[in-house]
Amino acid sequence: MKKSKYETADEIREGFISEGWNDPHFILLEEGGKYFETFKYNIAKGKKYFVMIETGNVYDEKGKIAMYDIPVCKPTPICR
Questions:
Q1: Tens of pLDDT, residues 8-34
Q2: What is the CA radius of gyration of the chain?
Q3: pTM listed for this prediction
Q4: Which residues are CB-contacts of 31 (< 8 A; sequence separation ≥ 6)?
């Protein structure tokens, strides 16, 4: 069962594993992170966001998806 609020990357990882995910890894979204600007207002208010390393998707402190990391094109010499 998922907790109502995760405080650390290890806690959200354990929550996802308990829900059946196969060994996900998370980092806390902090200043300077890829999507920090998108969430800085809520982070300043005390909310936490976590990035799943394997997918790049961002989850909030309740384990709900906050943003999908969907590439716009395949990496090529023209599009990187």
A1: 999 999 999 999 999 999 999 988 878
A2: 14
A3: 0.83
A4: 40
